[in-house]
Amino acid sequence: MKLFANVGVPFSDLLEVYGYANYAEKKVTEGFYFRHPNNRANVYSLDEGETLLIADVLDAQDGTADGSANCPTVRVASDVPDPVAFSQVFADPNCFSFQEMAPGGFTPRFGGVVTEMSVISGLRRTSESGLTWDASANYGVHESDFFIHNTVNASYGPNTPRDFDPGLYQQEEVSLNLDASCAATELANIAAGAEWRDERFTIGPGGRPSWDVGPYAAQGFVSGSNGFPGFPDYTAGTWSRNSTALYGDVELRDPGERWTVGGALRFEHFDVFGNTVNGKLSGRYGLTGAVSVRGGISTGVRAPTPGQQNTLNVQTTIDPETLQLVDSANVPSTFRAAELKGGRPLEPEKSINTTVGVVVDTGFFTLTADYFRVDIDNRLALSQTFTLDDDERALLLSEGITSAGTLKFFRFFVNDFSSRNQSLDLVSTFRPLALGGNTLLSFTLNYTHTELTEESELLTPGDVLGLERGLPRIRRNVAVDQELGRVGMLARLNYYGSWADHFDARFVRGVDSPMLEGRYIVDIEASARISSGLTLAFGGQNVFNAFSDRMDLCADIFGLPYSQFTPWGLSGGYYYARLNYSWGSN
């Protein structure tokens, strides 16, 4: 559901009160990795599928681990449990295996109800010459209220529910802005402003079964809703930060508009990180009436959000040694367990951005070519995955991660490394008048090279490979858009260069993760204007159903034979019919 509204009430020819509001709500659901009924750790087995994990109901009831029920050992051979021992478990009410509840395994269905709302209200003065100003207040909220179905809290044994409420994330932002600009002369424009911003991140507690440690945990059964444990009430809370900024901008141009230069400066105070000052210089010079050059240099700061500083959750990953699915936690960098591995309070990212380019515009032909370079210090990313030892497991338990008793790994955000991105962008369009109708030919090319200029001890070589080659370096696109009378046709040829699967590089094969070959992808659409305002279109994206290279190792582990980070999507071709109706224009 989406709702929106806007309103403007003029007080005079120059003064207006205005407001905007929107509300959107949607339900999103996705499937997690399949839980194998013989080897899923801490649910079906404790020894990678050699034997089934059998719960002793009597031990869980009296809290004494003495094997009161005398449950049999169920060995698994050729992926089949011993039928004799298995039948004994089924026949004994004091013995329990999750194969009784989900004999074929299970796939958790995770999702959430996502709600977004924003409201802006302000007063502005507009003028073609002289002073223009705008004073506004803005409130926005994004909330994800999670759910997870078709899973278990294994530590509850046979008493587990199958559907859980893990809690919610909520991000709220409030800002007050005052912007003003003045055309000091016909050749100079001056702008200035002030901003106050407050950000709040909330973790809402989940229902108790989603995070509770049940009576079967002592027997090796994992606690919490499997796949995404909920947030305990003692780790829930709200964290905030605010900042105040002042900024100014000056732009000058010559009388013939052959050149333009500009400069900007921004001072900002964060209540957590202190003061920052950033600036920008830019310019454009026309060589001829159709050709000009442009460039700029700027500095920037991106402060870690309260969510990045305080989020903790558990997710499924792969043990690279056993190739089994296991649980891993993302924890705040200030948790004691993280500090023992080098975690520390996060700092703002700092960047220097440089660009230079050329623009050609003859009317029927355009070309822009730009070079970009972005140097980032204190870059933010997740650390390598650390294996938990007993002391670290105890620390995580004490800090509110109730499922830490069966966790294998943990990681946290770090920003103690630097990177450099260099990019070349080409965009060209051509309108061949001789073809008749309305025809547009376009071509785009992007080459981006990412390298870590200062590496972190908290990143593995596989992490570095994922950061540097996790996206194609080359992307290009050729398109033809033709309109002739009532009929239109669009054909687009996309190319994505080779890349490394980020998940495979970080969690499975490390630096041995293979480079996946690039692909050409074809999109086509045909449309016809049936009547005034009514248009029918048929089309397809990736019409030849291209997939990435197969990743059989990942297919064997969790049933996904193609890279989940495929840049054009991993679902193959997409075909559609669309009917549009518009009114209010000819």
Could you characterize what this model shows?
26% of the residues are buried. Helix 7 packs antiparallel against helix 8. With 586 residues, the protein is mainly beta. The protein has a domain of 127 residues. The mean pLDDT is 90. The chain contains 9 helices and 29 strands.
In short:
By secondary structure, this protein is mainly beta. The chain has nine helices and 29 strands. It has a domain of 127 residues.
Major sheet summary line: 19 strands, antiparallel
Average pLDDT rating: 90
* Secondary structure tally: strands: 29
Global geometry:
globular
Protein structure class = mainly beta
Question: What proportion of the residues is helical, as a percent range?
Answer: 10-25%
Low-confidence stretches: none
**Number of helices in the DSSP assignment:** 9
Strand content: over 45%
Radius of gyration: 29 Å
Measured between the Cα atoms of the first and last residue, the distance is 29 Å
What is the secondary structure topology, with strand pairs?
Blueprint: E1 2-10, E2 15-31, E3 55-56, H1 57-62, E4 76-77, E5 80-81, H2 83-91, E6 95-96, H3 98-101, E7 109-125, E8 131-149, E9 164-185, E10 188-204, E11 237-253, E12 259-270, E13 274-286, E14 291-302, H4 306-310, E15 313-318, E16 325-330, H5 336-339, E17 349-361, E18 365-382, E19 386-387, H6 390-398, E20 409-411, E21 413-430, E22 438-454, H7 461-469, E23 474-484, E24 487-496, E25 499-500, H8 502-508, E26 515-516, E27 519-531, E28 534-541, H9 552-558, E29 574-581
Parallel strand pairs: 16-20
Antiparallel strand pairs: 1-2, 2-7, 3-6, 4-5, 7-8, 8-9, 9-10, 10-11, 11-12, 12-13, 13-14, 14-17, 15-16, 17-18, 18-21, 19-20, 21-22, 22-23, 23-24, 24-27, 25-26, 27-28, 28-29
Helix pairs in contact: 7-8
